[in-house]
Design a protein that fits this description.
The protein is of the alpha/beta class and about 280 residues long. The chain contains ten helices and eleven strands. The protein has one domain: Rossmann fold, CATH 3.40.50. The strands form two sheets. A six-stranded mixed beta sheet has the order 7-8-9-3-10-11, with helices on both faces. Helix 4 runs parallel beside helix 7.
């Protein structure tokens, strides 16, 4: 890929244990340009750890290493923490899974967005409030003035997720990492959230790393997909060609999805092969 926004080579994340250090992410490599890249796999495969590694938001016990992990030419693992703090929410934004646990419960949702405006855009209080109301309107929240003084527990899951998105786009980041942003939402609200993300990217093309379990969603929404198994990326292919996957793990995931056009009495159960842990990458 020519001039990617993000380039990762041989990312590894290890944790201490009684038996020595254990690798949770093992040799992950990928590039992201101004596109929507889906990262899929089972729970525990290392998807969220990979996303948090890019933000350097790992537990203290974790030890990330990489041949390189560069964002617009800057080596993320070598940046001082002060510069990383400025980059988080400014140039790289992360939308987390459940706004109930991601938003501050003792601050109004408006004040939380306004605080982000003041930190990253150096705005005064009045200007930050006006910008917050614009952002709430931009993510299709009706009557932003009514929503501004509400606390996180007073908004629905779909509205909370829109508020999270508004907070993350304050500084117009070049890369958005969305970690299961629609998993707690019903189907209709999920579609609205995806349309909002597409609208925002149409205004300013950005890279999007979309972490999810939902293969059908990735097929419809993303440009490219990375399949992760046991801490490794085992396959990469265009999202529209997901049904043509070659790796048996990806094929097993697809076979386990119920389909109206191919009804089955019993869905397939994924049978894992120990060789998948060491086999090469399929592209």
């Amino acid at each position: 890929m020519k001039d990617p926004i993000l380039s990762v080579r041989n990312l590894r994340v290890t944790f201490p244990s009684l038996a020595g250090r254990i690798e949770a992410v093992r040799g992950v490599s990928f590039d992201i340009g101004k596109e929507k890249v889906g990262l899929i796999g089972e729970s525990g495969s290392g998807k969220s750890l990979t996303g948090r590694s890019l933000m350097r938001l790992l537990p203290k016990a974790a030890r990330p290493t990489a041949d390189h992990m560069t964002f617009q030419g800057r080596e993320l693992l070598k940046l001082p923490e002060r510069e990383m703090r400025e980059m988080r929410g400014g140039e790289i934004a992360m939308i987390l899974q459940d706004p109930k646990f991601s938003l501050n419960p003792i601050m109004t949702v408006g004040d939380q967005i306004a605080e982000t405006c003041r930190i990253h855009l150096k705005m005064g209080r009045r200007e930050a409030r006006m910008r917050t109301l614009q952002l709430l309107e931009q993510v299709h929240i009706r009557d932003p003035k009514r929503v501004y003084p509400l606390f996180p527990h007073e908004v629905s899951g779909g509205m909370g997720q829109r508020i999270m998105i508004a907070m993350m786009i304050v500084a117009r980041p070049s890369l958005i990492i969305a970690d299961e942003p629609t998993s707690a939402l019903d189907v209709s609200v999920r579609g609205q959230i995806l349309r909002i993300l597409d609208e925002l990217r149409a205004e300013q093309p950005t890279g999007l790393l979309f972490i999810t379990h939902d293969l059908n969603l990735v097929r419809r929404f993303c440009d490219r997909v990375l399949i992760m198994y046991s801490g490794r990326i085992v396959e990469e292919l265009p999202a529209a060609e997901l049904d043509n996957a070659r790796h048996p793990y990806t094929q097993g995931l697809l076979e386990a999805i119920p389909r109206l056009d191919r009804p089955k009495e019993r869905l397939a159960v994924l049978k894992r092969d120990p060789r998948w842990l060491e086999e090469g990458f399929v592209r």
